[in-house]
Amino acid sequence: MLRWKDILIFAKYGNPEPARRVKHTDAEWARLLPPERYRVLRQQATEPPYRNAYCRVYEPGEYACAGCDSVLFAAQEKYHAISGWPSFRQPRARNAIRYVFDESFNMQRVEARCNVCGGHLGHVFPDGPAPGGLRYCINSASLRKVDVEGIGN
């Protein structure tokens, strides 16, 4: 189980290595992704709160990166945080997420990126529920829901 101190150590000293890497040029990403997903995953945009695909979805399954299909979160880790975006307690694997310090907009935050393709997912905060105390606040546009049988939604 990851805790806030683990996130800070990863962001400062380096993240766990993923099993694989997916790399494309910016032009290739623009061709591969729909405009909204490109904006969020590759340009670090944020979708509007509450008006996104997975904010109020709680069915079983998993959530994969919309850029490279790497599984990021299990549905049972999702909870209602009243933030306007899908919120998760823990990632599916210790090396699923890359953590980067983000000081944009005069704030100090930790950005969550897909550790395989580097796509922007959202941010992680230390105000989540016990036992880990983490809240991964993730853009729906960066995710693809996969049901239990592996058929994408």
UniProtKB/TrEMBL annotation:
Keywords: Oxidoreductase. The keyword Iron does not apply. GO terms for molecular function: peptide-methionine (R)-S-oxide reductase activity. The keyword Oxidoreductase applies. Residues 26-148 form the MsrB domain. It catalyses: L-methionyl-[protein] + [thioredoxin]-disulfide + H2O = L-methionyl-(R)-S-oxide-[protein] + [thioredoxin]-dithiol. Signal peptide: none annotated. It comes from the Bacteria. Its EC number is 1.8.4.12. PROSITE patterns: MSRB. This is peptide-methionine (R)-S-oxide reductase. It comes from Hymenobacter jeongseonensis. The gene is msrB.
